[in-house]
């Protein structure tokens, strides 16, 4: 069974925030994962490394939900 982008992203966020994977959904707030500039920098680095796509710190700033982050990752993977 292939791992979807959503599964990979939610697992990454779970590992990053040290919370159970099943507690994170596409409706979860990004504030739970990137609530300050250091967290945003760390998360953008992890995303770039995991998905091998360009994601800058400022790309994460306006995002409100994990679903919006998933859309960004999918968009970058498609380009």
Automatic annotation (TrEMBL):
InterPro entries, alphabetized: ACP-like_sf, PP-bd_ACP
Transmembrane segments: none
Protein name: Acyl carrier protein
Any Pfam family hit: PP-binding
Domain of life: Bacteria
Domain Carrier: 3-77
Gene3D superfamilies named in the record: ACP-like
